[in-house]
Design brief:
The complex is a heterodimer of chains A (204) and B (345). Chain A has 204 residues and is of the alpha/beta class. Chain A is built from nine helices and seven strands, in the order H-E-E-H-H-E-H-H-E-H-E-H-E-H-E-H. Chain B has a domain at 71-196. Classes of the chains: A alpha/beta (204), B mainly alpha (345).
């Protein structure tokens, strides 16, 4: 099947199934290079964010996902490699010379954008965990990228951790205004600021 | 598509008349919008415009479904139910322990309810029925659809939530799921059930049944609009000020009276002809009162949850449930009264 068609079809399907309403709060969709960072509660998160981007933006945006999950079967593997064009991170062996951040920077070149989940793994309660430091190093190496906070509401009720069957509730995906790493800003300060940017979107 | 939906001039009269009215309203709103100095409230015009758009969608989708026949119409109402339930449960806080119960509510009970509605009319006339056909026919003949959710759905939700092992606020959580299921699925399913009523004299063919369902939906929408319009008159006596200060006694009385007048004037489109013409007015009154009950109930739930509309299907648009709350409440009474009248008349 034509990959472009599959891509478009799956995006529409994901939009319909998640019933997602999309909000851009003080922020506009753009094809410039960006890092979308979001809270993480379900395997569907990356697909839902990816599908709520406008078509031209979507074509340039690559989700970062866990290798152990997306290589778990032939269908998932096909979707990850050919359709969603994911960058897969091996969570089991993270080495110094093969760090995920270097891999991401190499893969996006100077055209692609990224969808990342800085918590590293899905939260159980729906409450956001602490951000891992990868986001900080990513910004440090590519300070020119716009960092867009994204909040996904309700996904932990649609497909909570440990469940296989989804309940078709309606989600809301909110994109916030971009943030950047300030000169001389420390790692912990930046990560806290980034986490708050995502959390604030829930209240708006 | 070989059905007799358009054969009757009364069907063309009713649906054509409604389309003309909605068309006229569309033009009127466009004119008002272009005249900014008219001094009218722009927010009100915007709301009216959205209402009209919803009416266009409702009319076209319903008429298209009628062309395809009973199965498509029942499936259409099933999809509306499914979406309304999504909105209802999304706004209702649930706990992880409710997840499995909710899955079955959405993917088993909701479709099954509309299959049962379809079965009401399942009368295979083959001389030698297979066991399966006979079983399905029996399910239809004892009106499985009217007990499936209130009895078996009710028990299922309780048991499934209990089995999940989370006992915190157990009754409250089970009741929320049951209320959603009853309002959005069970009550709404009585609207397409109108299509399965049988009477050689009053509802002889598909066209007359479809027109009757259209009349029902039309009267609910009219009564909503008329109650809203009458509530605009200055002297205000809100009925339930804590829930919705816009619903006034003037609105309810004026709206109901004008709905009854319009409904009686449309008697020719209903099965209530001959000496029963006044039944069209009685039905309109019942519809009007139940519509009021429906919207005030759903307003109470919204107020408790601190939101204005269910769902944001289209940005700035009320949800599906906001459009159909009155239909949900009016449908069972309308269905049962008609059934009763057909039995007596």
């Amino acid at each position: 099947m034509d990959t472009n068609f599959t891509r478009h079809f799956l995006a529409l399907l994901a939009r319909f199934l998640s019933g997602a309403s999309v909000r851009w709060i003080d922020s506009q969709p753009d094809t410039c290079q960006r890092i979308y960072f979001a809270n993480h509660t379900s395997h569907m998160d990356a697909v839902v964010i990816w599908s709520s981007l406008p078509r031209q933006v979507r074509a340039l945006t690559r989700p970062v996902a866990a290798k152990d999950y997306w290589m778990g079967g032939p269908i998932r593997r096909h979707l990850a490699n050919r359709v969603f064009n994911t960058i897969l991170i091996d969570r089991t062996e993270i080495k110094v010379h093969q760090s995920p951040v270097d891999l991401m920077i190499r893969e996006i070149g100077d055209i692609h954008s990224l969808i990342v989940f800085p918590e590293g793994s899905r939260s159980v309660t729906g409450e956001m965990g602490e951000f891992k430091s990868g986001l900080y190093y990513l910004c440090k190496k590519r300070p020119d990228l716009e960092m867009i906070p994204v909040h996904i509401d309700n996904m932990n009720r649609i497909l909570p951790r440990g469940e296989v069957l989804p309940v078709p509730l309606l989600t809301c995906v909110s994109f916030g205004p971009p943030i950047w790493l300030e000169t001389g800003e420390g790692k912990n300060h930046f990560l806290r600021r980034a986490r708050n940017a995502v959390r604030q979107l829930k209240e708006l | 598509m070989g059905n007799d939906f358009w054969d009757d001039p009364r069907t063309i009269g009713l649906i054509g008349g409604v389309l003309l009215l909605v068309g006229a309203a569309t033009v009127l709103v466009r004119l008002l919008k272009n005249r900014d100095e008219s001094g009218l409230n722009t927010a009100m015009i915007e709301m009216f415009r959205r209402r009209i758009r919803a009416w266009w969608v409702l009319c076209t989708v319903l008429a298209a479904a009628f062309l395809f026949g009973q199965t498509v119409t029942v499936v259409l109402f099933g999809l509306i139910s499914f979406w309304a339930l999504r909105e209802f449960i999304t706004l209702t806080p649930t706990r992880p322990g409710d997840h499995r119960a909710l899955f079955w509510v959405f993917f088993l009970l909701t479709p099954l309810q509309f299959v049962s509605v379809g079965l009401l009319n399942y009368k295979p006339d083959a001389p030698d029925l297979s066991t399966w056909q006979a079983m399905l026919r029996t399910l239809g003949s004892f009106e499985f659809f009217s007990i499936m959710i209130p009895v078996y759905g009710f028990l299922f939700v309780l048991a499934r939530v209990a089995i999940a092992g989370d006992y915190k606020r157990f009754l409250e959580r089970a009741a929320k799921i049951q209320a959603g299921l009853l309002i959005c699925v069970y009550c709404l399913s009585h609207a397409p059930a109108i299509l399965t009523l049988n009477s050689p004299e009053y509802l002889p063919n598909w066209g007359s049944k479809a027109r009757f369902l259209f009349f029902f939906v039309l009267m609910v929408q009219l009564s909503d609009a008329l109650q809203y319009a009458w509530a605009r008159i200055p002297s205000k006596h809100p009925i339930v000020p804590t829930i919705n200060p816009n619903k006034t006694w003037e609105g309810l009385l004026g709206g109901s009276l004008s709905t009854v007048l319009l409904g009686s004037a449309l008697w020719w489109a209903t099965p209530f002809h001959g000496r029963y013409w006044w039944m069209a007015g009685v039905m309109s009154l019942v519809i009007s009162l139940m519509s009021f009950a429906g919207s005030i109930t759903l307003s109470a739930i919204k107020r408790d949850r601190g939101v204005k509309d269910y769902g944001t299907l289209v940005e700035g648009h009320g949800g599906v449930l906001d459009r159909i709350d009155s239909i949900c409440f009016a449908a069972p009474v309308f269905y049962h009264l008609t059934l009763w009248w057909l039995g007596a008349g």
